[in-house]
Amino acid sequence: MERILVIGSSGQIGTELVETLRTKYGNENVIASDIREPQVQQTGPFETLDILNKEQLLTIVNKHNVKEVYLLAALLSATAEKNPEFGWDLNMNSLFNILNLAKDGVIDKIFWPSSIAVFGPTTPKQNTPQYTIMEPSTVYGISKQAGERWCEYYHEKYGVDVRSIRYPGLIGYKSLPGGGTTDYAVDIFHQALKSKSYECFLSEHTTLPMMYMEDAINATINIMQAKKENIKIRSSYNIAGMSFNPTEITTEIQNVIPDFKISYNPDYRQNIADSWPQSINDQEAQEHWNWQPQYNLSRLVNTMLQNLEQMLLKEN
Ligand code: NAD
Ligand code: SER
């Protein structure tokens, strides 16, 4: 039986992706792996793996007959700015280790996420197209842009079947974010329910592209299931969900929790956010593999609050 390996499975996306993949392909056929322990109880195999350790990686891949890899291990934008050298090392060498496994014929297919961070201050901010000026100003964005070039290179030169999406900021209730600039849009829900107030590390009019996690997981699985010939972009696809700023998400939360209050205390993450687009044009993803998001801001806010409230009730 050919199996799937998710690397970085204990993180924000990995936690939800593993759950969905296991429902789809069977618990035993999806191997979760991470350098740290899982955040939720596992329903299938889990392996401790440092993706920078090539021998350990190969042992796990051979042990489980892995043919498909979802590589999620990375340092995100805010954390990587604090440790640029390690951010570059982890984000690039994790990708090379997986691309080389495919080049050598050990695995058949790779998913690797890029980010809206590939764009920079000189990129057009509104309706940012697939092909445009890309001069990222963060180490995270530089690593993602370089990663995109390498994905395309490995596809063109060695026929590696690697597929990629430029995720916007992702928001879900099942897992916590891991050190990004868009993390406020998850934290705000937890604080709204716990204390009815939130101090935001971005300023009130900072508009960013965002997406509900279920949409992101669907996009990930859809691009991996699409016919090879439909994947015409082998760097990474723009995808869009919604765009909002802290004031707009606050207004939506106040429709449910009227006495919720927000204050603003921007920190170093403001500069990162200011360098990114405000909205994304995802025409190519729509045309090539039928991408369509299901969640707008209002549906996202209601879903987040209902589910987090139920989780808090169970905890107490
Ligand atoms: P996360 O930080 O929540 O999870 C990353 C996981 O990788 C963590 O569990 C961490 O323990 C693990 N990891 C770190 N070093 C490792 C190593 N050496 N070996 C194995 N595992 C290691 O990140 P996430 O939000 O789940 O993001 C996953 C991917 O998606 C990243 O490539 C990120 O750049 C990309 N992305 C995320 C977002 C978002 O909003 N969450 C947006 C754009 C792109
Ligand atoms: N959500 C991610 C971050 O803020 C974007 O890639 O780092």
Summarize, please:
This protein has 316 residues and is α/β, with parallel strands linked by helices.
Structure description:
- Helix content is 44%, strand content 16%.
- By secondary structure, it is an alpha/beta fold.
- It has two domains: 3-169 and 213-238, Rossmann fold (3-Layer(aba) Sandwich), CATH 3.40.50.720; 172-210 and 241-315, UDP-galactose 4-epimerase, domain 1 (Alpha-Beta Complex).
- Strands 3-2-1-4-5-7 form a six-stranded parallel β-sheet, with helices on both faces. The chain has a three-stranded parallel β-sheet with strand order 6-8-12. Strands 9-11-13 form a three-stranded mixed β-sheet.
- The longest helix is centred in the first third of the chain and has 20 residues, at 84-103.
- The chain starts with a strand and ends with a helix.
